Amino acid sequence: MDVNLSNSFDLKSSWTKRIGKILLLLLFFSTLNQWYFLPWSYLQLGQPNLLFGTLLLALCLFSSKELSFNQLDFFLLVLLCITILNQIQNPDFSYQDAISGVQLYVLYFLIKQNREWLTMKVVAWILLIIDCYILVHLIVTERIFYHLSYETFGLFENHTILAIFLAVSLPFVATVFNRPFWKFLVLITINAIVLSYSRTAFAALFISFIGYHILWNYKAKFNYILLILLVLCIILLFAYNVDSVYGRLLIWKICISEINYGSLVLGNGSGFLQNHYLDLQSSYFSIQRPLNEQLLAGQVHSPFNEGLRILIEHGIFVFGLVLYLIVAMYRQMFSNLFRYSTTFIGFSTFVIISAFSYPLSSSSVQLILVITLAFVNPSIHSSFRLEPFKFKGILNISLLVLVGFVVYYSANEMKYLRKWVKLRNSNYQTYNESLYLETAISLYPKIKDYPKIAHEYANTLYQIGLYADALEVANAAKELYSNLQITMLLAVIHEKLGNQRKAEAYLKSSIAMVPKLYYPKYLLFKFYQKNHQHIQAKEWATLISKFPIKVDSKEVQQMKQETKEYLLTKSH
């Protein structure tokens, strides 16, 4: 359904509209992880997003006679400014933390400004093209549905993000097809292929569809049957994997119990939970906890609740503003539910998923949310109007400078990343250490803010034997992004440097990060054994031999067998 709320400016020429649609399509493609000619594994948001967004801005300013700015625009701008101020007070603040929020606001403003040709139908066709590309990619390139090599070939970080994107985009895609049969076929196809990978995405879409139908036809007699089916569906999805539900509850408990109430006003800064949740989990399990909680805790980097994440990272004030925005969105949609049917279902799907998963970690989902905000924006006839072409010369020059800066910045960033990928794949660290170090020392400072690169560099320095340098880089890498691998690497580096107490502390921290894993426990057992601390070694060998197996493997059986043999040897 088209939501075209303004006829206040003249229609743009056909070439302008075509270019705008192509730019929006390219913008969606740029949010996918797979651009074969770019080192996407290192990029969180990606420079092409910024480039295409800037070009869309140029198109809007050059072709619009006036720009509108209404109350919702101002509210979102205030929300953005407060969020950036919260990020700046974070000691780990980087300009890249703020750039994504500014970019999303600009995209929202541009899509809203160009609703006369960026209609719901246009967005639906663009999303249909993206969805078809994704499904063809799944079927043709990867062939096997569930065992997908996402790190190498995948379009998204994991199958959950993929399912979330398709679930949120499906209500928009359905508007392309006029006949109910085709809408039903699209729904069944996507659900059968992908949405079954994510119970949350499937349930959210199902609840949103039924919720809309009940609200639209609230007097229908069979609404009770729909409600019963909905409850049964939720119960079955809950029973399908109970551990997953309890795991989310444990994550929420850890986030709340380890929260710093002194930072609730301003928050801990953007990306805090993504980068440091495992440190919170390690702190939680640093004291003895029930065995069932130890078996539930996994190596995750998300609170699985966007509201909780916003509260912890951005503070209670931003959290309240977001709640107000959600209420305002629903009030606007309820004013004409039929007119906003697509955006109601899509936005409701997003809100439900946000309560149990991490949709905002996907740039693709963020873009759909921005489009939804733009289409639900109230009529702009009563909005304050800007006439930028009074200063056309200054504006055009400023815009060209902005586009030039973005192109220059993007080109430099990509150049450095390509050089790093080439260096990493060259095997110089094995065959020509001096050349590797010479190149890495000059290149690393330019890209040191990328966590994955910092982790790789620290590990390579350790393998070469430069333990002091590896320790410095590893400490910086842990500040950027704390995970199990970098914590264990710090442990073995300290052990090589003779810092036995720090090595022991990092090993214990890695155990507390993911208590159900055997390998960190096994490393600590070997550490005590190597240092002839037989009492501690025997204690951990006993724990390993008796600890229940969550996921069995050949390696786990070997570790259990070795510890049992050690205990038998010490008992004689």
Sequence stretches where pLDDT stays below 50 over 5 or more residues: 1-12, 34-48, 143-154, 379-386
Let me know the average pLDDT: 76
Helix content: over 70%
Kindly report the spatial arrangement of strands forming the biggest sheet: 1-2
Total domain modules: 2
Main β sheet profile: 2 strands, antiparallel
In terms of DSSP E residues, the strand content is under 5%
Query: What does the oligomeric state look like here?
Result: single chain
CA-based gyration radius? 26 Å
InterPro entries: TPR-like_helical_dom_sf, WaaL-like
Organism: Sphingobacterium spiritivorum ATCC 33300
Protein name: Tetratricopeptide repeat protein
Keywords: Membrane, Transmembrane, Transmembrane helix
Secondary structure blueprint with pairings:
Elements: H1 14-30, H2 47-63, E1 67-69, H3 71-88, H4 95-113, H5 120-142, H6 150-153, H7 159-174, H8 180-193, H9 199-216, H10 223-240, H11 242-257, H12 272-284, H13 291-296, H14 306-334, H15 341-354, H16 363-376, E2 384-386, H17 392-425, H18 428-431, H19 433-443, H20 451-464, H21 467-480, H22 484-496, H23 500-513, H24 519-530, H25 534-546, H26 554-571
Antiparallel strand pairs: 1-2
Helix pairs in contact: 1-2, 1-5, 2-4, 2-17, 3-4, 3-14, 4-16, 5-7, 7-8, 7-9, 7-15, 9-10, 9-15, 11-12, 12-23, 14-15, 15-16, 17-19, 20-21, 21-22, 22-23, 23-24, 24-25, 25-26
